[in-house]
């Protein structure tokens, strides 16, 4: 059964995006590769910046159906095909030769926001030196948060569920995958121009977030002292590695959200509502994270 969108999300949907400086660059999609990648009429590929749509895992057997990945691909086709598109901000080229951009339609609909609103993608921002890595991060996080609270799309499955940061064994099972964790930071250790956020008593086995030198500067430039995370409940997203226990490398501030602060409302942006309600998707509990 399709669930109705929460009122907070409807408020986001009904506002209008500010005009984009790059709106003069018109693009047309000839096809959809997957839930976050378009093939343009001129032969180039365009990757939607800042999100990761539901996809089959790399080891998926040929011919295996992945309903959430299919729903994301179908949704992007409905949103983009046959419409004039334009980058919101700068469209840049990544190391794979793809254009990467925040994308909006000729009627002002913001594609990233629409996919997040349907629960068919997660926010996956990049460092500032990557193409459009951190653009519209607050707005994307707000849309993702509303869809998760409503249990839409991927947020109905355990595969995409938020992992407890105080359970290193569970997090370790997700090694080499992109995950979202929540927990209270018990201790922050500063070592020179680096910082380590620990979620357990034993740094040799617990879940840790590492903020390296370059990232440390990015945090301080954003007005964030990494030491201020101590004792705070946070949500962290990133790739899980193993280094004296599960570890996520935080390369930019948008990877860490403080959950116990009184939040300043995110700026209102438009992701104009889809003409049809979001597609209902099955709840395949065994669908792996992409």
Number of strands: 17
Kindly estimate the percentage of residues that lie in beta strands according to DSSP.
Answer: 25-35%
**Averaged pLDDT, please?**
84
Structural class: alpha+beta
Give the proportion of residues in helices.
Answer: 10-25%
Q: In angstroms, what separates the terminal alpha carbons?
A: 24 Å
- Uncertain segments are 13-24, 262-270, 272-290
Shape: globular
- Give the quaternary arrangement of the chains: single chain
**What is the CATH topology classification name of the largest domain?**
OB fold (Dihydrolipoamide Acetyltransferase, E2P)
Helical segment count: 6
Rg over CA atoms, rounded to whole Å, is 19 Å
The biggest sheet, with number of strands, parallel, antiparallel or mixed sense and barrel status, is: 8 strands, mixed
Q: Give me the strand/helix succession.
A: HEEEEHEEEEHEHEHEEEEHEEE
CATH class of the largest domain: Mainly Beta
Number of domain units: 2
Question: What is the name of the CATH architecture of the largest domain?
Answer: Beta Barrel
């Amino acid at each position: 059964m399709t669930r109705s969108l929460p009122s907070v999300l409807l408020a986001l949907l009904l506002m209008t995006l500010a005009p984009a400086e790059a709106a003069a660059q018109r693009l047309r999609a000839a096809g959809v590769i997957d839930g976050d990648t378009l093939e343009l009429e001129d032969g180039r590929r365009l990757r939607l910046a800042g999100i990761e749509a539901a996809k089959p895992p790399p080891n998926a057997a040929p011919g295996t159906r992945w309903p959430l990945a299919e729903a994301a691909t179908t949704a992007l086709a409905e949103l983009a095909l046959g419409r004039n598109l334009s980058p919101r901000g700068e469209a840049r080229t990544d190391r794979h030769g793809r254009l990467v951009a925040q994308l909006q339609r000729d009627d002002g609909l913001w594609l990233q926001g629409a996919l997040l609103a349907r629960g068919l993608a997660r926010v996956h921002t990049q460092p500032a030196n990557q193409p459009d890595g951190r653009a519209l991060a607050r707005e994307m996080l707000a849309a993702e948060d509303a869809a998760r609270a409503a249990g839409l799309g991927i947020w109905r499955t355990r595969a995409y569920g938020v992992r407890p940061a105080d359970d290193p064994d569970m997090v370790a099972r997700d090694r080499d995958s992109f995950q979202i964790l929540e927990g209270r930071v018990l201790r922050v250790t500063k070592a020179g121009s680096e910082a380590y956020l620990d979620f357990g008593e034993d740094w040799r086995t617990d879940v840790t977030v590492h903020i390296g030198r370059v990232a440390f500067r990015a945090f301080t430039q954003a007005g964030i002292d990494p030491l201020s995370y101590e004792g705070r409940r946070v949500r962290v997203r990133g790739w899980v590695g193993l280094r004296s226990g599960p570890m996520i490398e935080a390369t930019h501030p948008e990877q860490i959200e403080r959950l116990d602060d009184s939040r300043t409302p995110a700026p209102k942006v438009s992701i104009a509502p889809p003409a049809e309600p979001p597609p209902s998707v099955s709840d395949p509990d065994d669908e792996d994270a992409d």
